[in-house]
Write a structure and sequence with these properties.
Receptor-associated Protein; 2 domains; 0% strand
Length: 373
């Protein structure tokens, strides 16, 4: 269940690393995790910090880490603190890295904190990957089907329409055939084509940027989707609980821990609930007090946070909560994959069949009329 946490630091004074801008590069949590684990091994072997960083600087190549390690090494070699150098040069780092490293430095347990940080980053990525995997097949299928439909409407449909117009006699087009041909005509306009390309480009950009262009309304609506909303909420609470537990174990103050753990939620609606928790703590209240006001927070999460407050074992309760929710995410992911794939395939197949029938039925009428004559 919960791993042994490193010794807590007293009077920790964490400060968050800067948030990356819209076009700045985010460092991969997996690369950061690998760096932290390797640095912990070198420090435990008795290698001084500067030499350990230089060794990793020569061997670390992935995800922009080499440049970061080089700059951090220069600062540490000049007499600066490791955590301060990370804060200065690592705006793309996960928000929990700097405070956990600073707490480890003050407690004299930096290597233990680095290992604990690596474990939590790996766990965070594992939960995130499981949610992402559930959507890979539907997104690929949807992209392929939409591309096929655009090809049919822009290339194939005009050919069939020309055949129908050139045929002798009057052909009464079914309603859905008229809809398809009218849509095809609209797509022949260069302005409409440009608009379609712009919309597709913007959609691809938003997907690529991920959470950098989040919107509160969209994030709130995600939580309203049956079953999917529950899975997203549980996954977010698992990340939040695990990160908050790690911060509390290493001596980071409660209010600062909440602010840093909030960055792992990746949903602005759930972040609002965490902000309310911060305000409650800041005003001398309980962390759990505002959770009743947010319907999307699972009842189990509220109960375990209350128990953690009353028992004085908040970190242990959060660790347990994260493990329970991680198991639930695994189960829900399996159900979604088994349901979404066939349902989406059937729906998209029906859509393609509709378009094809809309074009072929008038053509069949022409062939039958020719055969009769």
């Amino acid at each position: 269940m919960a791993r042994n946490a490193p010794a807590p630091a007293q009077d920790a004074d964490p400060a968050p690393s800067g948030n990356p801008g819209l076009f700045s590069r985010r460092l991969s949590p997996r690369h950061v995790s690998t760096f932290c684990r390797q640095l912990a091994v070198l420090l435990d072997a008795g290698i001084p910090m500067v030499r350990a960083l230089k060794i990793l600087g020569r061997r670390t190549t992935g995800g922009g880490m080499q440049s970061l390690v080089t700059r951090v090494t220069a600062d540490v070699e000049a007499g600066g603190a490791f955590s301060t150098a990370l804060q200065t040069h690592g705006p793309g780092l996960p928000s929990v890295v700097v405070p956990l490293c600073r707490a480890g430095e003050k407690a004299g347990e930096l290597s233990a904190n680095l290992r604990y940080l690596a474990d939590n980053l790996d766990h965070d990525e594992s939960v995130r990957d499981k949610v992402t995997e559930a959507m890979i097949f539907p997104l690929i299928t949807l992209t392929f089907t939409l591309g096929t439909l655009l090809f049919i409407l822009m290339v194939v449909a005009p050919m069939f329409k020309q055949i129908i117009e050139d045929s002798p006699g009057q052909i009464d087009l079914p309603f859905f055939s008229q809809v398809v041909f009218n849509l095809s005509d609209a797509l022949q306009s260069p302005f409409v084509r440009i608009a379609v390309l712009v919309v597709l480009g913007l959609g691809a950009f938003v997907v690529w940027r991920g959470t950098s262009m989040r919107n509160y309304i969209l994030d709130f609506l995600k939580l309203r989707i049956p079953y999917i909303g529950r899975m997203l909420t549980v996954a977010a609470m698992a990340r939040f609980g695990k990160t908050l537990a790690a911060l509390l174990r290493t001596g980071v103050p409660v209010l600062e821990s909440l602010r840093l753990a909030r960055g792992t939620v990746d949903n602005m609606a759930i972040e609002e609930a965490v902000v309310d928790m911060e305000k409650s703590v800041e005003n001398g209240g309980r962390m759990s007090a505002p959770l009743e006001q947010h319907w999307f927070i699972p009842e189990l999460a509220r109960d375990m946070i209350v128990i953690g407050e009353e028992s004085g074992s908040m970190a242990e309760m959060l660790d347990n909560l994260a493990e329970v929710f991680r198991t639930e995410v695994d189960r829900m992911q399996g159900r979604i994959i088994s349901l979404i794939q066939p349902v989406l395939t059937i729906l998209l197949g029906i859509l393609v069949l509709f378009v094809l029938l809309a074009m072929f039925l008038p053509y069949f009428s022409i062939l039958m009329g020719t055969a009769v004559r």
